[in-house]
Amino acid sequence: MLSRKIMNPSLSLFLLVSLFGGVPLSAGHTQQAELLADDDDAGDEFGKAVALHGDLALIGARYDDEEATDAGAAYLHSRNQGGSDNWGQFLKLTASDAAADDLFGSGLCLRSDTAVVGAPKNDSAANDAGAVYIFKRNEGGADNWGELIQITASDAQAGDQFGKDVAVNEGQDTIIVGARFEDTNGGNAGAAYIFGRNEGGTDNWGQVAKLTADDGASGDRFGKSVTISGDIAVVGAWRDDSDMGAVYIFYRNEGGTDNWGQVAKIPGDATGDQFGKSLDLSGDTLLVGAPRVDLTATNVGAAYIFKQNWDNVADSWGQVAELTGDPTDQNAYLGQSVSLDGDVAIVGSPEQYGNKNWGRVTLFLRNEGGSDNWGRNISFNSTDAAEGDHFGIGVAGSNDRILVGANLNDDGGSKSGSAYIFEDQ
Q1: End-to-end CA distance of the chain
Q2: Domain of 115?
Q3: CA proximity to 398, closest of 48, 50, 22, 23
Q4: Which of 187, 200, 90 lies closest to 137 in space, CA to CA?
Q5: What is the pLDDT of residues 392-410, one digit of tens each?
Q6: Exposed/middle/buried for 298, CB within 10 Å: 0-12, 13-18, 19+?
Q7: Can you give the CATH number for the domain in which 20 is found?
Q8: Distances in Å between the alpha carbon of 308 and those of 253, 281, 315?
Q9: For labeling, which of 135, 254, 270, 414 is most exposed (least CB within 10 Å)?
Q10: β-strands 191-197, 246-252 pairing
């Protein structure tokens, strides 16, 4: 059951700071560090995917060539590594069976003791079927992050690209993996898979469920985006219904013990919106990106906030806010990436400024401009912003910190990529 009723839609406060020269933030945030790979190279696209948890940052470089051409890598950076607030790199993660064109680092999630990395074109199960790798803190030594296990879908088929997006819940006992090109409901209809910790043995991660849409159809790309919090999993299908897009919500134990049953579908509003291309879930609050929403101009983009049990109706997910930027900002694609950090919604626009693709990130605050309103607070980019950076292609928030990827930044070579840490001071 769902409701798209909008409460407090006014987004009142907007402080737009200089995007072209580098005074990035107000509202208490400042840029603390630019993160680079210690072996950065042209074309790596470091920063396409990012994850953040407390004092740890995980950044993907899907085209890294150290193990093999485009095998990919992910880098762990830590606050105070190499100096106070330095955010230095302390470990590079690669797959134990790395091979050319795996694109390891395409999907990332980081919790306190668990890092999950997707390699959607890995061939372990079949050509481009995809695989996911789980790394554990202190595995192989103190402060090491050792590879614990590789997981693949039980029914893996060539071309599924399992691992393009991944997520792990707060308790670190459940992982969801998207496979956007899986064919159960038709060609490229898509699927998602749930894995449980200690399922099948200590420290094993066994598959416990396969999720598909109850109305899945060819081309939907269900599984392009996934998120999980507690006993709730959400899957995006951005090409559902002529690219209108939709998100599907599943509950653990719905329809039986340990079953993951669908309880709701939230559709997009208009053809071509690509609603559900990005997602994040925190408790009872869901943030959904729709980067091709048209306002005064085309492809301005938007994001939407939904709340569970809206209007005290069990299993309803009601829309409480539409988050928008400048309605005349053509081809900004706001909502290409999203993240929730408590009362802050972080929304990326990596193609903002049209063909120049500087990119930017916009923050929306809960209760800004009224109770339960999500007010537009600030838009920003990096202090060394440049044309073509794609700043905002990946965003993550944790404990009032923000990590932003700029995968086409040229600081380490053409399209080598970088990432930036911002902190609330």
Answers
A1: 41
A2: 2-424
A3: 50
A4: 90
A5: 999 999 999 999 999 999 9
A6: exposed
A7: 2.130.10.130
A8: 17, 11, 6
A9: 414
A10: unpaired
Q: For residue 241, what is the enclosing H or E element?
A: helix 240-243
Whether 354 and 41 have beta carbons less than 8 Å apart is answered as no
- Strand order across the 46-53 sheet: 46-53, 56-61, 73-78, 88-93
| CA nearest to 124, candidates 146, 104, 145 | 104
pLDDT > 90: what percent of the chain?
85
State both tokens at 324: 């928008």
Residues 192-204, buried b or exposed e (16+ Cβ, 10 A)?
Answer: bbbbbbeeeeeee
CA 121, 60, 18, 287 torsion-angle sign: positive
Domain count, the chain: 1
Beta carbons within 8 Å of 83's beta carbon, 6+ residues apart: none
Question: Cα separations (Å) of 124 from 70, 100, 102, 395?
Answer: 16, 12, 10, 29
Output DSSP code: residue 240: H
Contact 50, 403 (CB under 8 A): yes
Q: What is the mean pLDDT of the chain?
A: 92
The whole-angstrom separation of Cα 79 and Cα 57 is: 8
Contact present, 347 and 341 (Cβ < 8 Å): no
Asked if residues 293 and 317 have their Cβ atoms less than 8 Å apart, the reply is no
pTM value is 0.94
Q: Which of 1-15, 237-251, 388-402 has the lowest mean pLDDT?
A: 1-15
